[in-house]
Amino acid sequence: MFKKIIDINNENELHAFYRKLFFYKTYFFFFTKFYLPEDKEDTYNLAVLLTGLNIKNRRKRINYIIDVACRELDAYYNPKNLCQFKKAKCLLQRQKKEPYCNGCCHRCRYQSKEGCLTKNVACKLFYCSKALKN
Ligand code: SF4
Ligand code: SF4
Q: Who is most buried in 5, 34, 119, 123, counting CB within 10 A?
């Protein structure tokens, strides 16, 4: 494996790095491992990105990206409690006095007592206008 240090010192270098990302994912860098400089703070939060770049198997890399995206979305939205579930009914279902429960998931086959069985970024990004007012 070759070693490539990604040393970013300012916004311009960061944008230049982003522009090269497509190239870094190609076969030319299949045997290259990307690193941050040692003993330097990860100011631009690139560790996650470089970990993804270092996963050379495309399917495994996509799985990693989905895991990270879900983790970040959960960390951001869960504390906001936008849907305000109470006794399995969301804010909208309680207001409309609907007979269903589990909010947007009520018709989905992936719901379970332990919650969603999948990691679905699209679902995690969707909030109805009622929820967004919270
Ligand atoms: S997004 Fe709206 S409809 Fe869906 S669970 Fe939340 S409050 Fe209910
Ligand atoms: S995939 Fe998961 S989050 Fe999306 S609707 Fe189905 S159970 Fe709900």
A: 34
